[in-house]
Amino acid sequence: MGMTNTANNSFFESVQRNFDKAAQFTRFDQGILAQIKACNSILRVKFPVKIGDSIEVIEAYRVQHSHHKLPCKGGIRFSMEVDQEEVMALAALMTYKCAIVNVPFGGGKGGIKIDSRKYSAFELEKITRRYTSELCKKNFIGPGIDVPAPDYGTGAREMSWIVDTYSSLNPNNIDAQACVTGKPVSQGGVRGRTEATGLGVFFGVREACSFQDDMEKLGLTTGIAGKRVIVQGLGNVGYHAAKYFQEAGAKLVGLIEYNGAIYDENGLDVDQVQAHRQTTGGILNYPGAINFSNPAEGLEQACDILIPAALESVIHKDNADRIQAKIVGEAANGPLTSEADVILNNKGILVIPDIYLNAGGVTVSYFEWLKNLSHVRYGRLEKRFEENMYNELIDIIESTTGKRVSDLERKTILRGPDEIDLVHSGLEDTMIGSYREIRDIYKNREGVEDLRTAAFICAIDKIGVAYEELGIFP
Ligand code: NAD
């Protein structure tokens, strides 16, 4: 993407600008607002790792943006664009995100400046474990201190290296598994975390599309079925989002990867495109689709919903005017520059902001952390009890009405919840509830003109009260 330090500088500034714009609509003292905005702690490390026969010096960060609630929480990214400003911007977004979805954490973020495609799995493991021991040394990781998670370029595999390294350095900590989330289920992960961010994106957009007056303003009908969707980035977030849109009856007309984009107005099948990508090394030349060798052109094609799910600043002042979507759902963090945000708002496009829309990941990470601290799987205690209760209830209904429930009906009603059911329904409830909170501010607070400002207000209101009631340590 060729991002420069200046671009990341403006990413952090644009987060600060969005904050300031929203802060005017809140009642807090300037000092409280300044404290909410500030990055509380920043760690930068450089460490040597043996790669082949040579030694490479790796640059890495962990930023704890806010300590108003602990632990801090936020992903770890592997990317060549990583620098201090980028990690600061992403950590700040995490603080606001957690507040919006009522997850009791402060924001944090980590980054290692590497191109993960250039290393073997063993080399990545060495880098990840060394990074984790640096975090341990500086007290920048721990179940009550700071809890990382996956982000761009990382997944369950990296999280399992982190939990193993942390646990071996903290053998007496019975809660050690809660030092990181997004782990494989065998290492203390929770079912449903892998797809959580993408599923949250789907729930959020579905909720936005359920309001008739909002859809009429965009010239759309309510519901997801039949809507034309373009997704940028077929990684963890983008792939799962695309899959849920497709399952809900949307038409995936465009898919974009770093080395090309494809478009088919009749709709693409995301799993078949993934299979094609596996065998050919890219998504281009998929049967029946139009190719764009410049992936950015994919963003500008006709659609109703555009989901950028790759990296920041992909929609900017030079291409914003050509965006044809009516709804932009920010699955990635910071995909619009501030200039692009203004242009899209002026065009009447509904932008669903990152600090709300991609919060499904941190929401389910919270469930995973709770699972680790309670040392028990969700559903283990109540599943059978609930099944027995429903069974009795159906018996009573049958004997009082004199009618029999079919075997299939009985089986459906009798199912007590598994972990995955509870996680998905907790996520769905969170995404619906938070959208309504933000929309309510957007519709009812005088002068608020977009959902992003409303989302920031929602966050500032909650964090401001927390700081006021915390008092200031003398
Ligand atoms: P990922 O590494 O799993 O996937 C990213 C995908 O984007 C990869 O397939 C990559 O090839 C592709 N890509 C890179 N550059 C591109 C370009 N120019 N055009 C099109 N595609 C490109 O990462 P992820 O975890 O899915 O994260 C994606 C975004 O979502 C990031 O902004 C991240 O901060 C955000 N996010 C992730 C999570 C999470 O739980 N993983 C949570 C919240 C937000």
User: Beta fraction of the residues?
Assistant: 5-15%
How far apart the termini lie comes to: 46 Å
* Strand elements, count: 12
| Overall CATH architecture of the largest domain | 3-Layer(aba) Sandwich
Instruction: Say which molecules are bound, naming each kind only once.
Output: nicotinamide-adenine-dinucleotide
Largest sheet: 7 strands, mixed
The portion of residues assigned to helices is 40-55%
**Overall mean confidence score, pLDDT:** 96
Task: Specify the number of helices.
Answer: 16
Count of spatially separate domains: 2
SS class: alpha/beta
Keywords: Oxidoreductase
InterPro entries: Aminoacid_DH-like_N_sf, Glu/Leu/Phe/Val/Trp_DH, Glu/Leu/Phe/Val/Trp_DH_C, Glu/Leu/Phe/Val/Trp_DH_dimer, Glu_DH, NAD(P)-bd_dom_sf, NAD_bind_Glu_DH
Family: Belongs to the Glu/Leu/Phe/Val dehydrogenases family.
Protein name: Glutamate dehydrogenase
